[in-house]
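Entry:
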Amino acid sequence: MAVLEVQNSVGERAVTGTEAPIAVAMSGGVDSSVVAGLLKRQGHAVVGLTMQLWNQQRLPDLASDKASGRCCSLDDVYDARAVAGHLGIPYYLVNFEDRFEQSVVKPFVDSYLRGETPIPCTLCNNFVKFDQFLDMADAAGADKIATGHYARLWFDDEKQRWQMGRSADSTKDQTYFLWGLTQPQLARAMFPLGGMIKTEVRELALALGLPVAEKPDSQEICFVPNGDYAAFIDAYFKEQGLAPATTEGEIVSTSGERLGTHGGTHRYTVGQRRGLGIAAKEPLYVISTNPMTQQVIVGRPDDLLRQEFTVRDVNWVSMAEPDVPVRAEVRIRNKHAPAPATVSALPGGRATVRFDEAQRAVTPGQSAVFYGGELVLGGGWIE
């Protein structure tokens, strides 16, 4: 971990004063900038930290003219510095590229090659933003870290446990990506925007005079331009000097009929309909991929329905691991409406999820997040 640059426009008062500062994860976007401005306006000592996660100049085969729309781009770093200067708070840019590659990028590639569809943002939250970032906050003398995530957080005195709840703005709720946070991490986290809606955040950005007040939200993952995961994997293998995994094979129906060929199982995900490269009388969807046999299995919409599945690496957030089955609403994709289900904990950090009614495209590698009303009960990775 290396500090690339330091900007401290107010000396060391915020770090050495009587109040320990709050470290704000400043991404250069509107949300995290408002968090920094809001906390300072409330009288807190604030220090801004930006994580350099990915070198945008890597993998020239993926060159995109839309880098400014990607999370954590160089433009975002410049914007974060400008906001810190506007607010008059200490600012640090920290290189987390090695950690990000080991904890997010490589597992992302490996997961795709196993026939899964991973979520890099959840990996980043679990192993970088609320892990290594806390170490950097310690170095800055901060007791708490604050982010621009849309989620609510409070401590339940009766349960003696931190609780996470869905945000007030249902269209921006980000709890689907935060289920992996542990109690020690939550104890030091702050989500100041959890009770606000996006229009209020924009209005506050204007009131604070922030230079990013009208900046659009990031739409793409920082290391995958244009959302082309398969192209990223191919380019990454080329950069590393590795032979691309031999994943070419057959496209077959659920009954085993050969319908065509494909150029790699990592180019397909459960529920995909477009780009299959085969002719059929009716729309066909990817039902599953099997990297062991190099087959992509396609079928009708009803073949995508699944009622029961298991999850691994379960983290119980707002409740302790239950010893009896619990009723919950379970979300299997970020935009999926949570559906009623029964969740049963299993040994080894696993659990079984059984929906009341079968759901479409339960996808290995995605998260299943358990909700009890507004509470995030827990979550895990779909097997």
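Residues 1-17 have pLDDT under 50 and may be disordered.
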